[in-house]
Amino acid sequence: MPRNRPVDLNNLLYEQLERISDETLTGDALAVEIQRSKAVTGLASQVIANNNTVLAALRIQKSSGGELSLPKALLGKQEVEDA
User: Concatenated DSSP letters for 10-38?
Assistant: First the structure.
């Protein structure tokens, strides 16, 4: 099952925080986790920016009298849900 809901991203970030906070990591293992953390935070920033763009578009749609439906990407579901 894909892990692509906002809550999954949050969990992933906390998991990475736990890994990089491991005091037993030293040397190369620590360097690998630092690089992984940089990659994860870079990707997470892009996901968050994309979700913010979707939400901004929905706000504009709603303010112009349009019907508002939350995209499945934000809900992590197959169907689209009315807000």
Answer: HHHHHHHHHHHT-TT--HHHHHHHHHHHH
Q: Which residue has the tokens 């990591």?
A: 25
| Cβ proximity of 6 and 74 under 8 Å | yes
The answer to whether 61 and 68 have CB atoms below 8 angstroms apart is yes
**Three-class SS state of 61:** helix
Q: 65 and 59 in contact (C-beta within 8 Å)?
A: no
Choose among 60, 82, 57: nearest CA to 72: 82
**Model confidence band, residue 76 (pLDDT cutoffs 50, 70, 90):** low
Question: Whole-prediction pTM value?
Answer: 0.69
* Structural tokens at position 41: 């935070």
